[in-house]
Amino acid sequence: MRKLIIAIDGPVGSGKSTLARRVAALMGYVYIDTGAMYRAVAVKALRSGVSLDAADELTALAGNTRIDLQAQEGGQRVFLDGEDVTTAIRTPEVAQAASKVAVVPGVRQVLVAEQRRAGAQGGVVMEGRDIGSVVFPDADLKIFLTASPEIRAERRWREHQQKGDAIDLPRTLEEIHERDRRDQERTSSPLVRARDAVVVDSTAMEPEEVARLVVLLAKTQAAAGATT
């Protein structure tokens, strides 16, 4: 059966990473977390003292950065210039910095080129905020995953609680609204639903239900492609 390019987009906290990892596991595909690439650049910017408002410097930084994504059981490890930063990229500070880095057109140009190379052969599940609209507009299956802001905030808050991060739920909800605004209003690759994307609202669904639905859609798409 032909190996597909599956694009999963959606706002922060919608469950994209969980969904993409599970779909990849069920289908034997490679999982690619594009958001991790922006977070890695953000880590380097913070460490280097580069202003998050300095577009030219951030673009140069991205161009001189090596980011490697290595598959592991249930996910992937992220390496920044050879250093394992899988844990370092998941702090609230880096998350906020990454959302600012991601609005820089030059940074996006550098990383989108890397993402296209990574997924060009198919057999990948790639998640982010502009995969179906910009990175792979011809992806075989596009999913736009969403959920209510309150549910997304609760999910993100629980993630931070499990890691021991000191952050409260009202503040998390404020950050969700701010990230949504920033992602939707940025001039370069704003968060939008691709016209041919399937919208999946996970507000009242369990992660496994969502994953099984997407796998069913993918297999239907692959079978249809095989008969044309």
What key phrases describe this protein's structure?
8 strands, globular, 228 residues, alpha/beta, 9 helices, 5-stranded parallel beta sheet
Descriptive report:
This protein is globular. Helix 3 (55-63) packs parallel to helix 5 (105-119). 52% of the residues lie in helices and 17% in strands. A 5-stranded parallel beta sheet has the order 2-6-1-7-8, with helices on both faces. It has helices at 16-27, 34-48, 55-63, 92-101, 105-119, 131-135, 149-163, 169-185, 207-226; strands spanning 5-9, 30-33, 67-72, 75-80, 83-84, 124-128, 141-146, 198-201. The longest helix is centred in the C-terminal third of the chain and has 20 residues, at 207-226.
Shape: globular
Largest sheet: number of strands, sense, barrel closure: 5 strands, parallel
Low-pLDDT residue intervals, each spanning 5 or more residues: none
Order of neighbouring strands in the sheet with most strands: 2-6-1-7-8
Which structural category do the helix and sheet elements fall into? Answer: alpha/beta
Percent range of helical residues: 40-55%
Count of alpha/pi helices: 9
Radius of gyration: 17 Å
Mean pLDDT: 90
Short description:
Helix content is 52%, strand content 17%.
Helix/strand layout:
Blueprint: E1 5-9, H1 16-27, E2 30-33, H2 34-48, H3 55-63, E3 67-72, E4 75-80, E5 83-84, H4 92-101, H5 105-119, E6 124-128, H6 131-135, E7 141-146, H7 149-163, H8 169-185, E8 198-201, H9 207-226
Parallel strand pairs: 1-6, 1-7, 2-6, 7-8
Antiparallel strand pairs: 3-4, 4-5
Helix pairs in contact: 1-9, 2-4, 3-5, 7-8
